Every structure is written in structure tokens, then in C-alpha cells.
Automatic annotation (TrEMBL):
Pfam families: Flavin_Reduct. Gene3D superfamilies: Electron Transport, Fmn-binding Protein, Chain A. The lineage of its organism: Bacteria, Bacillati, Bacillota, Bacilli, Bacillales. InterPro entries: Flavin_Rdtase-like_dom, NADH-dep_flavin_reductase, Split_barrel_FMN-bd. Residues 10-150 form the Flavin reductase like domain. Coiled coil: none annotated. SUPFAM superfamilies: FMN-binding split barrel. SMART domains: Flavin_Reduct (SM00903). This is Flavin reductase. It comes from Salicibibacter kimchii. Keywords: Oxidoreductase. GO terms for molecular function: FMN binding; riboflavin reductase (NADPH) activity.
Length: 160
């Protein structure tokens, strides 16, 4: 099967949009990702998938910490910035939780200590043990078929 067919099929899975952040020395690094998953409640573990050619790969390995911020529908410009989809310079507002930068006003920010990593194919899966969570209200930014979108709830009729 061609790479394009596989990529198009994966694009048909609607996701939220996250920004993964870490701090290496005094430098803050971030990347937009939709490859995120919670994997365990006890202990509280999540995983993110990072391309083996991404700068973020070595930054997470060296810092031993990372955060995942779930973006709101009002933060598409931040998603585009960290995805390299715009050439405009942008000042990003961060909060710092446990010495890890998170996107200010994100719907949720999950700060993790790196538990372990697995190189799988052309990506590395980073498993993080959740150390801290910050929550705010709002609606999520979504991603489907290569395009950003907004969440729309579906009302169900009462069943008799």
C-alpha cells in the first residue's frame, strides 16, 4: 500500500489537537501533535508519538520531562505555529508547572516525568507518568482529514 493511502486513512480519525512541550536547559521547545493517548489509570500514564527525525525527540530524552496541552478552539494559531504551518513570529504565553512549560489557557495541561520510550518504526513512543494536571473550560480544537475544526455536540432524542 502507498504511504499516501495509509496517511489518508489515518486522517479520517478525528482527533483533538495537542502541543507537546519540554524545557531543555533554559530553552523551551514545542511541537503540535495529535498522536496522544492515555494508557493507564493506576499508575497514571500517557503516551505521545514523536517522529524520529523531530528535534523534540532528543529534547524530551535529555530533559526527562514533557507536557501535553490540549488546545481550545481559540488556539488554532498556536497549533499552526508549533506545526511549522506559518512563517509569522509569534510570542507564545506559557505557564510553568513543575518546571515544565505548558500552553497558557489550554483546556488541559498534563505534566509528565518520562517513564520510558520505545522506538517503533519511524517514531518513538514516549510514556510519561503524570505528575500534575491543570484544567480550564472551553471547547476543543479538532483535526480531521488534514484540517482544523471545531467541536459540535450532538443532541440525542429522549428514548421512550
Amino acid at each position: 500500500m502507498e504511504d499516501k493511502t495509509f496517511r489518508n486513512a489515518m486522517g479520517r480519525f478525528a482527533t483533538g489537537v495537542t502541543v507537546i512541550t519540554t524545557k531543555a536547559g533554559e530553552d523551551i521547545h514545542g511541537m503540535t501533535a495529535n498522536a496522544f493517548m492515555s494508557i493507564s489509570l493506576d499508575p497514571k500514564l500517557i503516551t505521545v508519538s514523536v517522529d524520529n527525525n523531530a528535534t523534540m525527540l532528543e529534547k524530551i530524552k535529555s530533559s526527562g520531562q514533557f507536557a501535553v496541552s490540549f488546545l481550545s478552539e481559540d488556539q488554532q494559531d498556536i497549533a499552526m505555529h508549533f506545526a511549522g504551518q506559518t512563517n509569522e513570529e509569534k510570542d507564545i504565553n506559557f505557564d510553568i508547572i513543575n518546571d515544565v512549560p505548558v500552553i497558557k489557557d489550554a483546556l488541559a495541561s498534563i505534566v509528565c516525568d518520562l517513564e520510558r520510550s520505545y522506538e517503533v518504526g519511524d517514531h518513538t513512543l514516549f510514556i510519561g507518568e503524570v505528575a500534575e494536571i491543570n484544567l480550564t473550560d472551553g471547547n476543543p480544537l479538532t483535526f480531521y482529514k488534514g484540517k482544523y475544526g471545531r467541536y459540535q455536540s450532538v443532541e440525542f432524542a429522549d428514548t421512550v
